[in-house]
C-alpha cells in the first residue's frame, strides 16, 4: 500500500510532501478547506481553520467529505481530536438562523432562531450580542433589532456560532437585464457560480483572473432582474465593466452610469469606485446617498479582497440587499476575511486555477524568481539602514534594470508588463527601457490610450505601478517582470500573475518573473508573497541572474 503525501497533525496543521506522486491531487482537495501557511521547497504546511471549514460548509461540502480527503491522502491516521474538531466546527454553521418572524411577510421583523435553546441562551447573554437582540419570544426565538442584522452576524462569527441568514432580501426595483449570448455561452463553471449565488442570495464567487468574473456578475444581474450598484477599484475598471455589460447584455450606454471622481451619474445600473464611496468632506462621507439613490436589487463588490475598511461598516447596513463579491483570492492582508464572510456572505463557489487552465480558459504560466546581488555601495546602504527602509533599498536596486532588459530581449516579439511599487524606481526603469509609464497620477484618458496601444501591439512594453494590479484587461500580455511590491502581499502576487492569464491568441505559455535582491528582506517577502499561488499549484523556478541566459535556454528547450 502506497503511503499518502499528507501528515495531519494534532495542532490542525497539515504537511504536504511536494514530491509525492499524489501531491497535486491532494493539494487540489485541500484548497477547499485549508490555507497554505508556508511553502518551502519540499514540505508545504497548511492549516485547517474554522473560517475555512465554514466557507466549505456554506459552499456545500460536508465534514464527511473533508475527513474522507484527509484519510485518503494521509500517511498516518488522522488524529482523533482533529477529526472531532472538524465535525464539531462544521456542525456549528447554521445551528443559528436569522429569519423573518413571518416567513410569508418580507417586511415582518427579524428573529434569531435555534433548535437548541442552550446555544441561543449562550449567545444571547454575551455582552456584545445582547444589545442587538430584544426580549425573547420563547426559548428558541429572539427578536433582532432592525438595524443589527450585519453586526449580529459579525458577533456570532466571532463567538464561533456563524448564523445562516435566511431572512431573504429586498427584491429591489425591477429592471430588465438579459444576457445577449451572440456567438458565446456561459462556461460550465460560470453557470455553476451564478446558480450558487442565486441559491444563497449573497456571498462570494472565487475565480482566477481572466476566468470571466465580470460575466458571472452580468449573468447574476440578469437572474435578479433589478437595478444594480457595482462597486469597483478605479475608474478604468468602471469603464471596462461598462463596456463588457454593453457587449454581453441588453443594457445600453444610456442604462449605465459612472460614479467616480470624474463623473457623477446615477442610472439603473451604476458603477461606482470604492474611492469615491469612502471619500470624506469635513469628516463626513460625502457620497453615502448613492447607497439609497435607487432601490437596488443587488450590489456587486468587484475585487472584494480589496474592500476598504469603511465599506465594511456601510455594508453592515445593507444586509437587506443581495450582495455578490467577486475575487480571485479571499486572502486579505488585514485579516478581515471573517468580515467578508459575515457581511458580504460566505464563499458560494470556488474554482481552482489549475482546473480552469486545464480546460483552456486561462493561459498556462511559468513562474520564475531571479536573484541578483546588490552592488557594494547598495549593500553598505542596506546594512546601515533602519528596518523600515531596508525593503525599499533592496527592491529598488539598480541591478534590476539590465536584468529586466535581458529578460525582455529573451522574449522578443512578446508583450511585456514591468510592474513595481515605487514611483522613482518605475520612472528610472521606464527611462532605461524607453517605455511609457502608467501610475496613479496618469490621467484616466491617457491610461486608456496607453492600454489600447498595448492591446493593439503599438506599444510592446509598459511600465506600470500598482494601478495595474487588478481589473485591467490586457489579454495579449504574456510576460510580466515584477521589480517591487507591497511587501509580503499574497493577494498582490496573485493579481499580478493574473494580468497574464487572459487566453492568448497564440499558444504561448505566460512567463512571470520576480526580480529579487538576494539575502535581503526582498527575498524574505517574496517567499510570503508566493504562498497563495503555491496553494493553487504554481511552482517558482529559482534562477541566478548570472546564469539566466543558460538557465532559461535550457528551460525553453524542455518546455
Automatic annotation (TrEMBL):
Superkingdom as given in the UniProt entry: Bacteria
Family: Belongs to the helicase family. RAD25/XPB subfamily.
Name this protein carries in UniProt: DNA 3'-5' helicase
Entry keyword set: ATP-binding, Helicase, Hydrolase, Isomerase, Nucleotide-binding
Domain Helicase ATP-binding: 194-348
Residues annotated as domain Helicase C-terminal: 399-556
Catalyzed reactions per annotation: ATP + H2O = ADP + phosphate + H(+); Couples ATP hydrolysis with the unwinding of duplex DNA by translocating in the 3'-5' direction
GO molecular function, one term: ATP binding
EC code(s) of this entry: 5.6.2.4
Amino acid at each position: 500500500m502506497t503511503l499518502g503525501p499528507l501528515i495531519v497533525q494534532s495542532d490542525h496543521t497539515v504537511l504536504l510532501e511536494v514530491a509525492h506522486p499524489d501531491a497535486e491531487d491532494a493539494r487540489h482537495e485541500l484548497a477547499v478547506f485549508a490555507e497554505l501557511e508556508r511553502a518551502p521547497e519540499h514540505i508545504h504546511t497548511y492549516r485547517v481553520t474554522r473560517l475555512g471549514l465554514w466557507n466549505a460548509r456554506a459552499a456545500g461540502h460536508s465534514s464527511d467529505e473533508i475527513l474522507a480527503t484527509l484519510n485518503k491522502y494521509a500517511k498516518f491516521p488522522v488524529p482523533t481530536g482533529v477529526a472531532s474538531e472538524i465535525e464539531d466546527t462544521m456542525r456549528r454553521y447554521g445551528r443559528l438562523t436569522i429569519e423573518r418572524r413571518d416567513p410569508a411577510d418580507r417586511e415582518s421583523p427579524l428573529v434569531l432562531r435555534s433548535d437548541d435553546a442552550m446555544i441561543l441562551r449562550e449567545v444571547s447573554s454575551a455582552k456584545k450580542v445582547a444589545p442587538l437582540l430584544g426580549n425573547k419570544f420563547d426559548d428558541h426565538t429572539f427578536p433582532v433589532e432592525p438595524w443589527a442584522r450585519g453586526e449580529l452576524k459579525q458577533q456570532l462569527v466571532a463567538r464561533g456560532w456563524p448564523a445562516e441568514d435566511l431572512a431573504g432580501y429586498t427584491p429591489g426595483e425591477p429592471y430588465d437585464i438579459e444576457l445577449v449570448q451572440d456567438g458565446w455561452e456561459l462556461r460550465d463553471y460560470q453557470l455553476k457560480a451564478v446558480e450558487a449565488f442565486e441559491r444563497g442570495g449573497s456571498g462570494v464567487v472565487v475565480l482566477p483572473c481572466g476566468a470571466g468574473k465580470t460575466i458571472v456578475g452580468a449573468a447574476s444581474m440578469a437572474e435578479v432582474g433589478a437595478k444594480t450598484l457595482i462597486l469597483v477599484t478605479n475608474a478604468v475598471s468602471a469603464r471596462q465593466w461598462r463596456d463588457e455589460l454593453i457587449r454581453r447584455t441588453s443594457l445600453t450606454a444610456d442604462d449605465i452610469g459612472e460614479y467616480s471622481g470624474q463623473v457623477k451619474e446615477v442610472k439603473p445600473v451604476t458603477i461606482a469606485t470604492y474611492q469615491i464611496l469612502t471619500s470624506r468632506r469635513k469628516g463626513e462621507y460625502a457620497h453615502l446617498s448613492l447607497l439609497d439613490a435607487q432601490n437596488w436589487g443587488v450590489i456587486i463588490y468587484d475585487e472584494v479582497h480589496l474592500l476598504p475598511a469603511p465599506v465594511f461598516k456601510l455594508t453592515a447596513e445593507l444586509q437587506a440587499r443581495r450582495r455578490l463579491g467577486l475575487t480571485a483570492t479571499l486572502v486579505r492582508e488585514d485579516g478581515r476575511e471573517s468580515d467578508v464572510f459575515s457581511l458580504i456572505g460566505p464563499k458560494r463557489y470556488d474554482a481552482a486555477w489549475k482546473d480552469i487552465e486545464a480546460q483552456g480558459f486561462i493561459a498556462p504560466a511559468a513562474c520564475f524568481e531571479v536573484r541578483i546581488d546588490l552592488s557594494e555601495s547598495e549593500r553598505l546602504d542596506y546594512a546601515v539602514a533602519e528596518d523600515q527602509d531596508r525593503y525599499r533599498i533592496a527592491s529598488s536596486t539598480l541591478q534590476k534594470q539590465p536584468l529586466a532588459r535581458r529578460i525582455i530581449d529573451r522574449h522578443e516579439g512578446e508583450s511585456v508588463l514591468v510592474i513595481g511599487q515605487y514611483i522613482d524606481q518605475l520612472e528610472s526603469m521606464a527611462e532605461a527601457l524607453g517605455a511609457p509609464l502608467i501610475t496613479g497620477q496618469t490621467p484616466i484618458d491617457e491610461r486608456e490610450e496607453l492600454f489600447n496601444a498595448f492591446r493593439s501591439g503599438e506599444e510592446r512594453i509598459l511600465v506600470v505601478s500598482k494601478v495595474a494590479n487588478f481589473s485591467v484587461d490586457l489579454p495579449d500580455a504574456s510576460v510580466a517582470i515584477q521589480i517591487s511590491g507591497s511587501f509580503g502581499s499574497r493577494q498582490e502576487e496573485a493579481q499580478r500573475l493574473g494580468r497574464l492569464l487572459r487566453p492568448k491568441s497564440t499558444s504561448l505559455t505566460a512567463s512571470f518573473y520576480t526580480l529579487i535582491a538576494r539575502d535581503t528582506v526582498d527575498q524574505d517577502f517574496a517567499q510570503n508573497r508566493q504562498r497563495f499561488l503555491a496553494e493553487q499549484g504554481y511552482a517558482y523556478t529559482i534562477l541566478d541572474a548570472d546564469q539566466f541566459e543558460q538557465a532559461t535556454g535550457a528551460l525553453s528547450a524542455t518546455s
